[in-house]
Q: What sequence folds into this?
């Protein structure tokens, strides 16, 4: 059956066009979008591509290989163009906003990619090479750069989830009376956001100006600016000394 | 069958002892530990508790209710004792380390709990009430407190994943030659960590001193201290002005 199917496909367009990395990646992302990460199986992927599983295995050896294709595809969408061209602050800002926006569209992949070795993912490693070069240019000591990247990525991954959080996530409902301070803080944030729905917009931020995106954008901006200024200060031993 | 089973249990110990919130929570966490979040179904939970699904439904109306129990159980383990007792920096530090450590043991729940409304989770709201009180005491304007909490939580959730990352996550393998800067930074971090495997330990940090925990601890410490100092600086308009 497989041979027949392949022969049939060959008569039309070559299998390489159907099963190129781009097609496999696109189909894998569609599956994950529909059913979460658990929906990504080799047989479901073959079905979606309209080929026999064995034909798929000729192109990718395992689900792990598919995942590397997906990771590389997503990481290639992260904007590293600021490194080497802009001041460190600006380059980190551009990188972080684009990185968050890419993963906000693919949150079911975060817990997988956050712990996935980069060993066979060339686009991913290229992304890290550009970021590392930017940190070295800004005077970062080599042995602290990975910690700084991991800290920023942790914030970025967590913030990507927040983009998809419902607007009423902090509504305290009947618990409001017993928790007045938190409830009032939630209310005043909500009033601030509805008063200036567009104020959350900035270069690199999500184009949507819904109230929910405004909330997640303002939290992301506050945290990112704090991280950038705190990390920059940590480079200078005098400034880094914690004020007591 | 359900009635017979309930009658049999009543003859032994009362069903309330078997199906109290604590038992349901414990069984739910075991299921998630084994099979991930998708392993948590009402029927699997009833099976694990040794009761008929209808008996379980007498105590929790839905999987969403079980999840609230689980969320509340985890949030009750987050240490808010510093707020109201210690300086803001110290209280945030204690809270953040304990929060990260709780979720590092339950990463399959992060993408669920990060977007779960708190409306019917009393322990969770109590946790937020204590944190909000601490921020108000430290002079934070009410309308910016939730953004600051969300920014810290985003960093905490992302960092919890990093605790479970394999030690070789950044090994570039055959890609090293084309990506020398990143590869060298990864190598120097690894050398630093193996030279001082215990140096990552601090109050509130993970008790394990493995190389991997040392890596994630040092990244978490760098990011958390940067966030704390950056957030504190953002309270003062003069200090907050970005240096260009």
A:
């Amino acid at each position: 059956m497989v041979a027949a199917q392949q022969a049939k496909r060959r008569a039309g367009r070559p299998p390489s066009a159907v099963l190129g990395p781009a097609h496999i990646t696109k189909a894998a992302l569609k599956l994950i979008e529909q059913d979460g990460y658990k929906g990504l199986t080799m047989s479901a992927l073959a079905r979606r591509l309209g080929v026999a599983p064995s034909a798929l295995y000729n192109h990718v050896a395992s689900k792990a290989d598919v995942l590397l294709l997906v990771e590389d595809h997503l990481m290639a969408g992260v904007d590293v163009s600021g490194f080497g061209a802009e001041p460190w602050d600006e380059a980190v800002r551009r990188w972080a906003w684009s990185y968050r926006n890419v993963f906000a569209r693919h949150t079911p992949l975060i817990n997988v990619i956050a712990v996935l070795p980069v060993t066979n993912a060339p686009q991913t490693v290229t992304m890290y090479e550009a970021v590392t070069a930017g940190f070295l240019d800004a005077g970062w000591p080599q042995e602290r750069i990975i910690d700084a990247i991991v800290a920023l990525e942790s914030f970025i991954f967590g913030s990507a989830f927040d983009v998809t959080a419902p607007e009423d996530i902090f509504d305290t409902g009947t618990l409001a009376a017993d928790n007045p301070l938190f409830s009032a803080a939630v209310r005043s944030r909500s009033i601030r956001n509805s008063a200036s729905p567009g104020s959350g917009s900035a270069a690199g931020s999500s184009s949507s100006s819904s109230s929910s995106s405004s909330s997640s954008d303002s939290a992301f901006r506050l945290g990112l600016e704090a991280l950038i200024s705190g990390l920059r200060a940590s480079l200078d031993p005098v400034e880094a000394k914690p004020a007591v």
Chain A has two domains: 2-60, 74-164+196-240.
